Amino acid sequence: MSSAEERKKEYYYNKAKEEGYRSRAAYKLKQIQNKFYVIKRNNVVVDLGAAPGGWTQVASEYVGKKGKVVSVDKQAISPFDLPNVEVLRMDMRDERLPAVLLSLTGGLADVVLSDLAGNVTGNWSLDADRQNYLVQLALETCHRLLKNDGTFVTKVFRGPTIQELDEEIKPWFEKIRRFRPPATRKKSAEEFYICTGYKGNVEEA
Length: 205
Ligand SMILES: C[S@@+](CC[C@H](N)C(=O)[O-])C[C@H]1O[C@@H](n2cnc3c(N)ncnc32)[C@H](O)[C@@H]1O
Fold this sequence. Notes:
alpha/beta, binds S-adenosylmethionine, 6 helices, Rossmann fold, 7-stranded mixed sheet, globular
């Protein structure tokens, strides 16, 4: 890592510590929100791949007291002292997940967030394939849980099969914008898709 990159990492690490966020990743969601205003007051938000919980903390602030955030990860998420947040330990591959999530949200969600990521091996193509799979699982969750006209924010890796993934996501949304938050490390292959205007679940419109 270059020294500029190290400084950036340290900067966000210290900032998260000072401001009481559980991860540096919190600033990525803040930067996404500042640019695209994805989460609105009173929204119901599902946060996939939420541990340790930086995005959940940020989403909880944006939805406010009358909103709700339901966060899931295969790793344990330490409980929050936040009345509008529910946490769930479950694997995205578990087919019971959508039903359990629905019971916690109490209905379809306005926003599905996914910062899901596996352990990076350094093999670019393998890592990209694994990331694509996680994005597909997150998209399936949208099909079960996202309101018509809802928003899906997902982490993707730029890799050889990104176009295939694009083709899978595109038909379902009015608009997809790509964004690399400044808090993302320069060398990282990650970027985020901001997908708005979900076209499924039309019967719920
Ligand atoms: C980059 S971290 C998320 C950081 C989080 N957004 C934050 O702000 O603290 C990615 C998370 O995805 C989770 N994850 C990866 N594969 C998963 C799976 N199959 N099911 C559930 N969670 C998974 C990992 O356990 C990890 O906690």
